[in-house]
Design goal:
This protein has 187 residues and is of the alpha+beta class. The chain has one domain. It is 22% helix and 18% strand. It has a 5-stranded antiparallel β-sheet. The protein is globular.
Length: 187
C-alpha cells in the first residue's frame, strides 16, 4: 500500500512526545549539526523564531566540558513544546491533503523527510501517524524516507564511551515537577 497523508492531518508537525522518558521533557525535531545553520538562516529570512537545543552529545570523558553535540532539536512554539515553528497554522491555501502546509517543505530537516518511519530494529512505521493507524502497512513509495533515515543513522553512529541526552525542561504543566533540564549521562 502506498503511504499518503490523511486529509486534514498535520499531527506529525504538531504533537511532540516525551522521549525516552518523561524526565527528559518533550523532544523537538532532530536537527543534524550540518542542518542547524541552514534552519537558522531560513528562519531568520522568514522572520520566524526558532529554538534549537542540543539533543544527543558524546564525549571521551565523563564531564560536561568535553561534550560534542551529535544532534540538535528544534522545539515547538507552544509552551508545552508542541507545534513546529515552520507549520503554517494560518494558511491562505492548505496543503495538498488539506492539512496545514510546511513553510520550508523543500528544505525541511532530514528527520521530517523520514516520516512516518521510526528507527528501530527493524525500521517500523510510527503508530501515532493517522495513516499508519488506519492501514497498519505502507510498502510503496517510502524509498526517499528510508534513504533519509539511513543518512541520519550513519551520522548518529559513534564509538564514544559516553553518550549524553539533553533534557529540554519542556512539557505539559502537570508534568513540570518531573521534567529535568540539561545534560544527562545515559547509563
Amino acid at each position: 500500500m502506498e503511504f499518503r497523508c490523511i486529509d486534514e492531518c498535520a499531527q506529525c508537525c504538531i504533537q511532540r512526545e516525551y522521549f525516552p522518558e518523561k524526565k527528559f521533557g518533550k523532544i523537538g525535531v532532530l536537527i543534524l549539526p550540518e542542518e542547524k545553520e541552514k534552519i537558522e538562516t531560513i528562519a531568520k529570512e522568514k522572520k520566524i523564531d526558532v529554538s534549537i537545543l542540543p539533543r544527543i552529545g558524546i564525549s571521551s570523558q565523563k564531564n560536561l566540558e568535553s561534550i560534542e553535540v551529535l544532534a540538535f532539536q528544534m522545539m515547538g512554539v507552544e509552551d508545552n513544546g508542541n507545534t513546529c515553528p515552520f507549520l503554517d497554522t494560518h494558511p491562505i491555501k492548505k496543503s495538498p491533503h488539506g492539512g496545514y502546509p510546511c513553510k520550508i517543505y523543500e528544505n525541511r530537516p532530514l528527520a521530517c523527510q523520514t516520516y512516518p518511519l521510526i528507527e528501530s530494529q527493524p525500521i517500523t512505521l510510527d503508530e501515532k501517524c493517522k495513516f499508519c493507524k488506519e492501514h497498519k502497512t505502507a510498502d510503496e513509495n517510502l524509498n526517499s524516507e528510508i534513504e533519509s533515515l539511513l543518512k541520519i543513522k550513519t551520522k548518529m553512529t559513534t564509538n564514544a564511551p559516553f553518550i549524553w541526552r539533553y533534557a529540554t525542561g519542556i512539557g505539559e504543566d502537570e508534568d513540570k515537577f518531573e521534567i529535568k533540564k540539561g545534560w544527562i549521562l545515559e547509563e
